[in-house]
Each structure stands twice: as structure tokens, then as C-alpha cells.
Structures
1.
Amino acid sequence: MDFNRRHILGLEELSAEEITLILDTAESMKEVSKRDVKKVPALRGVTVCNLFYEPSTRTRSSFEIAEKRLSADVLNFTLSHSSVSKGETLLDTARNLEAMGASVIVIRHPMSGAPWLLAKELDSSIINAGDGSHEHPSQALLDLFTIREIKGNIEGLKVLVVGDILHSRVARSNIWGLLKLGAEVRVAGPPTLIPSHIENINVKTYYNLEDAVKGVDVVIMLRIQMERQDSEFFPSLREYARFYGLKREKLKLAAKDVVVMHPGPINRGIELSSDIADDAGSVILDQVSNGIAVRMAMFYLVASGGGNS
Ligand code: CP
């Protein structure tokens, strides 16, 4: 099938076939990353701007490496040294970068919907690198890629997402992707951090981690998004860690070959104990490595697709 999209904004709007095409393309891109010369000319002559309004270690670095492996010209926008501090709007900033030749803009922004605004107003291709608590498509795609690589298939797997579901763009994108590819999705966390309507989209809710983890094939642990919380959602971090932190005795209730994932950054000792984070069953650094191939695939498909949506 052809990828007929100019933007990649979220997994809610991608079909199962489009998601599978991205994952299949990422497999070819992973081969490029194994070569001595890790470079192909797919984006030669294309200027890509990384427009990050929020901090990032993994996503920004991984997008930049992906862009360079595809031979793009890379422009990294640094918020703290920009004219945003003088009051320039997001749209004016993006229009100016476009006027300098950026035809692909990778945006991370604290406001949900910011990438859709740019997609509507600009001619450039827009790739969402995380918008507020809404979507983080490249993270979910690399998570799906990692699960498929290890388990062979996603359909029929029992996947549990644990933690701050309410504020997590990673959870939202993963839930859409996992459901579209046929996984059984469970979420667990304090009632205050799980949206009440989530069961309407066929996600099973648990407030008790021991019950939730029973028999699951994959556990995705999430960080508490303190920066997006404007009130107290649980009594204390210590209490949260006691009830919802993943420890060895709880993990024993999962399937024998359970895979533990985390998008990072990890708050060690809160959502995840170090012995699990660093154990052989943890694929956290594989997720990070796979992010490069998946982001290369996203650029490649967007550049070759040329569709309108
Ligand atoms: N997973 C993720 O988005 O990490 P960063 O915030 O470091 O990019």
C-alpha cells in the first residue's frame, strides 16, 4: 500500500494498515543502522527543523540522528535562545522557519493540538513529537515495533499500561496503536489518574496492580507527569510507589516471558525498581535504539507519500 499522508500527527487517525507499513519500513531502516556507513540519501536537499518547546533527551536526539541518517539538513530550534521569550507566537515562529526552507517540522509542544494547528496553517510536513497530554505517535510506533520484534506479532497479546494514564500522551498513542493491531489492552493506576471513559474504547481498567498484571505479555510502565498535574492526584509518591510501583513479586504474576517497557525518563524506585529496569526482561534501551529506525521510516514515508492529509 502507499502512504498517502503529508503529516504524522497521531495514532488515533492512522489505520492498522498505515501503522503496519511504518513498522515494516522501520525494519528496512534498521538494516541501514547496522551498516558501516549508516546513511542513505532519501532526504538529501530537504531541511528538517526540530521545534521543541519542551525538554527532551530521547525523542529530540533520536529524530536528529534519523534525519542525519537520511541525509537531511537539520535545524535545531533552541527555545531558550529564541524570540519566543520576546512574545513571538508558535505560528509566527513556525512560519519564519518555513520561510527559511524547513519543509518538515518536528514539533513538541505543551499544548495539546499544537501540531494540528501547524498542519492546517503551513505548507510544511508536520511530525508530532508529543503534544501536551494528547499524543506521542513516534513513541508508540517504536513501542509497537519493539513488541512486534520480540513477540513476532501484536494481535492477541495482553498488554498492560500502568500509571498516570490521564496525563500521558504515551499511553494515549499506545492504546490507539495496540487496539488497532489487535492487542488486549489493560490499564492500571489510581482511580484519579485513569479517565473514566476509557472503557468505552475497549480498554479494561484495574485499580489493583496485582490483578492487572496477571498473565500479561507486556507491561508498559509510565512516569507520573508532575509537570502536567495542577492538583494532588494521590497522597504521596511513597504511597504511589507502594501500590503502583512494579516490583519483582508483582511481576511474577505476569506471563513467564513478560517484557517490561518504559518510554523514559524513569523515576527509579517510584514506578519501577532498578532491579527490574536493568534486568534481562527489560527492553527499555531496545526501545530507544529502535526509535531511530522508526523515525527514519516516518520521514521516509511522509517524504515519499506527498498526500494531503
Ligand atoms: N520518551 C520520551 O519522550 O522521552 P524524552 O522526553 O526524553 O524525549
Note: The chain has two domains: 16-135+288-304, 138-283.
2.
Amino acid sequence: MPGTSDQTNAPHRFGRAEHDIVALGIATAAIILFVSTGSTVLPQAIRGLAGVGLGPEKLAVNALLLNIALIIFGWRRYRQLALEVVERRRAEEQEQRLAQTDPLTGCLNRRSIGPATDALITQSAVRGEVVALLMIDLDHFKQINDYNGHSAGDAVLEGCARRIELLLPDGAILARLGGDEFAAATAFDPRRAEAVDGIATAILEAIAKPFTTNGITLETGGSIGIARSDAHPDCGEYSADRVSGHTLMHMADIAMYHAKKRGRGRYFWFEASMESELRFRGKLEAGLRNGIPRGEFVPYYEQQIDLQTGELTGFEMLARWNSPELGLVNPTIFIPIAEEIGLISELSECLIRQALEDARRWDPRLTLAVNISPLQLRDQWFAQKLLKLLVEANFPPHRLEIEITESCLHDNMGMVRSLIASLKNQGIRVSIDDFGIGYSSLAQLRTLPFDRIKIDRSFVSNLANNRNSAAIVQAVTQLGRDLGLPITAEGVETREVLHKLLEYGDIKGQGYFYGRPQPAAETHRQLGQLDLLRPENGHEMPPAMPAAPTEESRRANGL
Ligand code: C2E
Ligand code: CA
Ligand code: CA
């Protein structure tokens, strides 16, 4: 740390300065003495040699010699000190350079990019130019580090720095902010912002090209956020004449985050609306963190129906956030955030715990289906955690069904396979959810021991008026028959769809046609009316399973 080295150097420097003064004092005194003794001794010596006088006194000669020795000593000391000063200055410059640059890439570092951008803004203003700051973040860099080691990661970072440098105009600055983040600042003519667009596009193309290191080829990509120092007219509070380097970095960072959200490999200029989006996201994150312990996340239940008989067979639990600030929030909003901020396990466990408690009071023939995030499948303790919840709730595993979305089969098949096996060993059933949109191969479907296929609602809901969807639904139901896997169709919204589905054979269905997902209390009330609640002693079974759906669906089924 520069602060520390400054402190350690301070006494040392002070000591040198003292020596400097002593050496200078000695040399000056010696010269004065030399002038005074020399001026008497030398003429006497010359006269003595010429035989005109007695020559100098011995004492005076000794004094003169001592004097000359002192001058030589002083001069040498002076030379030595001068060399030391040069050396010290060089070391200080080196120290300063290290404090300002990133040791791996030789670019500026996070600390120095702000002041360097400030300087660039001031210089460019003289020429009527403004500064664009590009925040460049590499995509999936962590995977390169994890799978190929840190030296491969370092090689990619160095390679990126060199490629970016080549694309920047003269006078531009480049910094590595740490990790896989770079920032570049360049001056441009405010009437020709497309020049900056060109640079951003070229950088994205350059870093997306493969890198080869130690015989392996590595690929990355990037996302860029750009902010300009004259700020855009619609940049709200940033629309001051000129913003500082520090604020520019903040704005570019927001735009970069936006680019990442929009699907990476692209760039965005900062706009004020992005910041409000980010603030909203921050609010959601904080709400999520605080809402879990406060019990704001609750299970809702959607009926699952045997389409042929119209019987209620169970419920799918769908998470809802009862936020005091935002009202009832859907899982499509908060589940991805919970995944990103590492709260998905905690949230899911809290919901499943409540759902098991609710479902314990239902008729024992009714099943409970829960959705599991792909991230939870990577948790090697997931099966154990689930078993613990089942034991705590005293809930029979065969009544629980886990829904795994098709898309998560693409990464880490080995792990998914062993997880499914251990869930099945416990008696839990496993369905493949959203089937049809994730392009999983038939081979995968055959090798993974699923218990059920759920056809994605995008095919089901427009089954009646889209021939392609109808063909897919038909093909999937046939596939289910061939593999001996029962089928559930999600998104049954209308009677027409129901009738169409009935043509495909023995399948289950769920959707708004049978009712919207409802909270636990309402589900409880509905089951009470249908005489589908477990009797208080918990052992008696109702004689037969009556039909559960709405009046309309009963009529549709001819019941
Ligand atoms: P999903 O598993 O496909 O759940 C079905 C979604 O479709 C639900 O949306 C449901 O309300 C909606 N839906 C049901 N019937 C119909 C219909 O007839 N028409 C239409 N258009 N939509 C219908 P929701 O509740 O917003 O859930 C969205 C997704 O969030 C779920 O999709 C599921 O993937 C995920 N999700 C829900 N709860 C959880 C949870 O506890 N954990 C995890 N990891 N994901 C969850
Ligand atoms: Ca589902
Ligand atoms: Ca689905």
C-alpha cells in the first residue's frame, strides 16, 4: 500500500536530508579554510621553493593537506548523494506507476481511472469535445476461470486488454477495474456520437473472437454500457453541463447492467430510466430479503384435473409475494431475482414447508406438485433437505411431485440424473415441466426416469386455433404413451381446448378454465365443500373422490 510505504520511508528520507546538510557544511567549511590557509601557505611554499624565503610552517602545510582531504571527501559524498537521489526518484516513480496500474494488463487501475477521466474531460473541453466512458464487462468469464484455471483466465484478460487498446483512438485511456471489468474513456465530437457506437461495436466483435492459450481455445464475449460527459438531454439529474469521471463510471455501469439484462453481447448508452429500473430492482431485492422472514411469501394452489372424469387429482403450488409495498407479485418477477441473489433455496424451502403443512389437511389422495429452480438441482444436499421437510411435516413422499423445467436438462445432466434417482428412491415423483420449448432430445427423456410430462402452456392454450401447436400436443401425447409416461396439459383456458385435449386420450390438465391459482384458505374452503378434507383424526378416508372443478367445467365434461 502506498500509504504504508510512505510512512516507512519518511524517517529514512529525513536521515538523508540531515546527512546532506552535514556534508554540505563540511565541504563549505573546508573550502573556506582552504581559501584562507591556501592563500598564506601556497605563496610561502612557492617562495621557499624559489629560495627566496623560509617556506611554509609545517603546521600550516598539514592544515592545508587536511583541508584538501576534506574537500575531496565532501565532493565524493556529494556525488554519492546525488546518485542516491536519482535512484530514490526512480523508485518513487515506479511505486507511483504500480499504484496507478493493473499489474496483469498494464492498464490503469480502478483508483486512477476516475482522476484520469477528469483530466481527459478538462482537456477535451478546450477542443469542444466531450468524453465517452465505456464500461466493458466480459460474459461468462467465471466459467473460464473455473474450468480452465486462473492462468487461462489471466491470458484472456491480457488478450482482451490488447485487443481493446488497438481499437481505441489516440489519447484514450483504458483501465481494468478488477475481475473481468474494463473501462475505456475517449474524447469525441458531441455531434458525431456514432464514432463511439463504432468503437463499442468493434470492441464487442474483438473480444468475442476466440483466444488460444497453451493449446486451448477459449471464448468469451462482452456487454458494454456507455455514458457521455455532457450527458444526454433526457438524463434527468445527470443533465448537468459536465459530469465527473466518477459519475460517468456510475452511469456507464448502470447502462452496462442494462445491456447484460437485455441479453449480453450488446451495448447501451445510459438513460435516466435505467436508473429508476435499477432502483426498482434494488427495492425488489431488499423486499425479498426482508420478506422471507416476515412471512410475505405464500403458496397459491392451482387445481390439477383428470380431464376424462373431471376429478380433482391434486394441486400445483405456485409462489406469490404478498408485498406490503407492491401488492401481490408473481413468481416470474421475483424467482429470477431470488436465483440471482442466492436466496432461491431459502425461499423455496419456506414455501414448500408451508405447502406441506396445508396439504397435510387435504384428502390423502390429493397430490401436491412443487416447482424447483434449476439452481436447486445443483445443490448436492437438495434431496436431503427435501426429505427433512417431508419428515418434519409428516407428509408421505408419494404425494409429492417435483416439477423440473426442461431447460435445466442442458447443463449438468449427470447431477440431474443422480438427483432424480435419489428423489425417486425416497418415493417422490418427478415431472418434466414446460415440455416442448427446451428442445430436449428423446434420448434424454428416455434415460431420465421421469414420472410425467407436462406440455408447456404455450402449445396448449392456442391448441384450438393453431395447427402447429395441435401437432406438437398430439406428438407429445403419443410420445408419452410410447414411453409409458402420463401427460399433463397446462394452460387449459377454454372449453374448445378441453374438448380437443379429450381427443388425445387419457391426460390430466390444469388452467384458468378450472380456476385461477388461489390461496391456502380458499383451497381449504373449496375442499371442505367437496368433502375432500382429511378428518381431524387424520386416518379416515372419504368414500369416493367427487368431482372438484367449477360448474362450467363439469358441464363441459358432461358431468
Ligand atoms: P409454471 O410452472 O409453468 O406454472 C404455471 C403458470 O401458468 C403459473 O404462473 C400459472 O398461474 C399460469 N397459468 C395457469 N393456468 C393458466 C392458463 O390457463 N393460462 C395462462 N395463460 N396461464 C396459466 P405463475 O404462477 O405466474 O408462475 C409462473 C412460473 O413461476 C411457474 O410456471 C413456475 O415456473 C415458476 N414458479 C412458481 N412458483 C415457483 C416456486 O415456488 N419455485 C420456483 N422455482 N418456481 C416457481
Ligand atoms: Ca410448473
Ligand atoms: Ca409451465
Note: The first helix runs from residue 2 to 49.
